[in-house]
Write a sequence for this structure.
């Protein structure tokens, strides 16, 4: 994937040089709590670097890493995505909505017909963003998994088809 740029944002393939920052975020319980890891992942920079695949992406604002997103081919024209704006001073500024618009637009232009994702029921901010982009709630999975502390968690499954996509960015360009 070539980098996608819009205004001062860049979404690009994660590289080995990004592993140190990714490991720091993944080991930070405050960053990872929504994903069920309030104590962080306890992973090393080397483990992170080894696990970076083609769908592992980083988000930059200007030249600063501020978060990550990813996609994977779930088969039959479906891409599953995820996103985290990891730097707290970058949250609640509309960056996530823009990055999702960029990634989703790129996925639809590259042959995917449906995008799926899930989020924790407690993550109302993410649900608002997803629904503003046209995602539709498909299912609520009550007490479907336990977090790192053994607490039951509920998740919501979402899906988006191209005709329902409401992008918040004009056409981005790849550089």
């Amino acid at each position: 994937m070539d980098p996608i740029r819009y205004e001062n944002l860049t979404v690009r393939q994660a590289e080995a040089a990004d592993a140190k920052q990714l490991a720091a975020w993944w080991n930070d319980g405050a960053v990872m709590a929504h994903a069920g890891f309030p104590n962080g992942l306890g992973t090393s920079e080397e483990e992170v670097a080894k696990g970076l695949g083609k769908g592992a992406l980083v988000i930059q604002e200007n030249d600063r890493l501020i978060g990550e997103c990813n996609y994977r081919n779930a088969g039959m024209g479906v891409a599953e995505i995820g996103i985290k704006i990891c730097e707290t001073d970058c949250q609640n500024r509309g960056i996530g909505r823009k990055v999702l618009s960029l990634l989703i637009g790129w996925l639809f232009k590259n042959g995917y017909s449906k995008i799926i994702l899930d989020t924790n029921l407690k993550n109302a901010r993410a649900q608002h963003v997803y629904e503003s982009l046209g995602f539709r709630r498909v299912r609520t999975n009550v007490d479907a998994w336990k977090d790192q502390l053994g607490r039951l968690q509920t998740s919501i499954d979402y899906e988006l088809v191209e005709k329902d996509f409401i992008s918040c960015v004009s056409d981005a360009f790849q550089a």
